[in-house]
Automatic annotation (TrEMBL):
Keywords: Decarboxylase, Lyase, Pyridoxal phosphate. The keyword Transmembrane does not apply. Its cofactor is pyridoxal 5'-phosphate. Gene3D superfamilies: Aspartate Aminotransferase, domain 1 (3.90.1150.10), Type I PLP-dependent aspartate aminotransferase-like (Major domain) (3.40.640.10). InterPro entries: Aromatic_deC, PyrdxlP-dep_de-COase, PyrdxlP-dep_Trfase, PyrdxlP-dep_Trfase_major, PyrdxlP-dep_Trfase_small. It comes from Streptosporangium vulgare. The keyword Lyase applies. This is Pyridoxal phosphate-dependent decarboxylase family protein.
Length: 475
């Protein structure tokens, strides 16, 4: 086998192989381990020298399915509580397949009015879901990291313009360092965005009131007074260790009083806005200058999906547009071209799974899912509080439960090692996945619930596997 032209009739048959594997695979996610260590050997199926003559379409797809359905981490199932990871709703998963089927160049209106319109509608629906003004500009990104990059690039452009500079055109040379202020909840991806933007990974000044990282508003107020010029505040809506929130409304007040830019990272926490019972957590987000979130977390669409919204849409084009290539549309093109509003150039029709899941389940579906996950987190929090040897380290705010194992009689200096051991045992067991972090200086577990498939039985299994491992140690 060599030239794919000889196999052009195999495409549909290859896709049918995938579709045939999908039913049993997806059906197994409910009961199989998150990671079956016994299947790791299948990964070797991928690894051989580059074939001189190809192995052919069908043989290759079958091999990929055999290795993948066995040895992949089954993190899109209901019991991957590690990090902050969602799954793919039925409509989102199918939307993603359609994205591959149609293989659009989704960055330019000219190459795909269809993908462009889908993105415009998906962004409008997302703004509606989150209570953001429709006038905000928006763009889909590959992740929250890229979305933070997008929002902070606009902040940097705005800040440069306040100094009479066009940073997009001329760079940062000759300008003072851009002042960036945040509480201790600042996510590493914002640091990474600042690093890429030439503002320095360690360029953010952290104003934390205590060891939890809670923002010190009075200190931020004083710092903004001292700066006496344009500055950027980064607020976090949903912190990864505990799910806690910066007081977004109060940060918005500070930003207004000092003429600062407020960027809000709501990678998963922005979804609190979908529930009337939780929306107070993000009150004020509609006053931010840039707001971002993730699609592949709580929206439950496949990787890679994030989005950024910016209050002043023209800043997006000034930050990312004006390519100046003769073959690309001019800056005054009446059509929207999403590749001049964000960091990517060529890109897939990322909107299709977003559009599909929002159409399929609507505002009500997302409200129910977010509230169910909040209930599940409260349930696990209650189980932890009732156990004499477990310690809840922070109140359950949203969908993350931060706790540790603290058996009586164990000296405090041994607890970190004990919890690291518990985290490693959980991963080795594989029935549920949850990992450790350091919170307030101690090693802790922080399972997060935001997969659409997750129910009470999955959370109870997490609790019982933790109990089993603990009992094994005692015996
Ligand atoms: C997950 C997360 C990010 C980064 O998201 P990616 O999609 O992994 O780039 C940023 N901020 C917060 C608060 C997050 O939870």
């Amino acid at each position: 086998m060599s030239d794919p032209l000889h196999e052009r009739d195999q495409t549909a048959a290859a896709l049918e192989e995938v579709a045939r594997a999908a039913g049993p695979y997806l059906g197994s996610l409910g009961d199989r381990p998150v990671h079956d260590h016994g299947a790791d050997g299948l990964i070797d199926l991928l690894d051989h020298p580059l074939p001189e003559r190809g192995e052919g379409t069908l043989d290759t797809v079958r091999r990929l399915l055999r290795a993948g359905t066995g040895a992949a981490t089954h993190s899109s199932g209901p019991r991957f509580f590690h990090f902050v990871v969602g799954g793919s709703t039925p409509a989102a998963q199918a939307g993603d397949w359609v994205t591959s089927l149609l293989d659009q160049a989704g960055g330019l209106w000219l190459t795909s009015p269809f993908a462009t319109r889908a993105e415009t509608v998906a962004l409008r629906w997302l703004k509606d879901l989150f209570g953001l003004p429709e006038s905000y500009g928006g763009v889909l990104t590959p992740s929250a990291t890229f979305a933070n990059l997008t929002g902070l690039a606009c902040a940097r452009q705005w800040w440069g313009e306040r100094h009479g500079a066009d940073v997009a055109a001329d760079g940062l040379a000759g300008l003072p360092p851009m002042p960036v202020l945040a509480g201790g909840y600042l996510h590493p991806s914002s640091r990474k965005a600042l690093q890429i933007l030439g503002c320095g990974r360690d360029g953010a000044r952290i104003l934390a009131a205590d060891e939890t990282g809670r923002v010190d508003l009075a200190a931020m107020d004083r710092a903004l007074d001292e700066i006496d010029g344009p500055a950027v505040i980064i607020g976090n809506a949903g912190e990864v260790n505990t799910g806690d929130f910066d007081p977004i409304g109060e940060l918005a007040d500070l930003a207004e009083r000092h003429g600062a830019w407020l960027h809000v990272d709501g990678a998963f926490g922005l979804f609190a806005a979908a529930s009337p019972r939780l929306s107070h957590l993000v009150e004020g987000v509609e006053r931010a200058h840039s707001v971002i979130s993730d699609g592949h977390k709580w929206l439950n669409v496949p990787y890679e999906s994030g989005f950024a919204f910016v209050r002043e849409p023209e800043l997006m084009a000034r930050s990312f547009g004006a390519w100046g290539a003769a073959y690309l549309p001019p800056g005054d093109d009446p059509h929207v071209n999403y590749n001049v509003l964000g960091p990517e150039s060529s890109r897939r029709a990322r909107a299709l799974p977003v559009w599909a899941t929002l159409r399929a389940y609507g505002r009500q579906g997302y409200r129910e899912m977010v509230e169910r996950h909040h209930d599940l987190a409260l349930r696990l929090g209650a189980i932890v509080e009732e156990a004499p040897d477990l310690e809840l380290l922070a109140p359950v705010r949203l969908c993350v439960v931060c706790f540790r194992y603290r058996p009586p009689g164990v000296p405090p200096e041994e607890l970190d090692a004990l919890n690291a051991w518990l985290g490693a045992e959980l991963l080795a067991d594989g029935r549920v996945y949850a990992g450790t972090t350091t919170y307030r200086g101690v090693t802790a577990l922080r399972p997060a619930m935001l997969n659409w498939r997750t129910t009470e039985a999955d959370v109870d299994l997490l609790a019982s596997v933790v109990r089993e491992i603990i009992d094994r140690r005692a015996s």
